Amino acid sequence: MPRPAARVLTLLELLQSGGTRTVSELAGRLGVDGRTVRRYVEQLIDLDVPVESVRGRYGGYRLGPGYRVPPLMFGDEEALAVLLGLVAGRRAGLTTAQRTANETAAAKIRRVLPRRLARRLDTLLEALSFTEEPGESDSPDAGVLLTLADAVHHRRPVAVRYTDREGRRSDRTLHAYGIVAHAGRWYVTGRDVERDEDRTLRLDRVTDARTLPGSFEAPEGGPDPAERVVTGFATAAYRHEVTLRVQAPPEHIRAHLPATVATLDKHEPGWQRVTLRAERLDWLPPVLAALNRPFAIDHPTELRTLTTEFATRLATYAERPARPTPRHRNPKSETPMPPEAGDHSDR
Question: Of the chain's two ends, which shows fewer C-beta atoms within 10 Å, N or C?
Answer without folding.
Answer: C
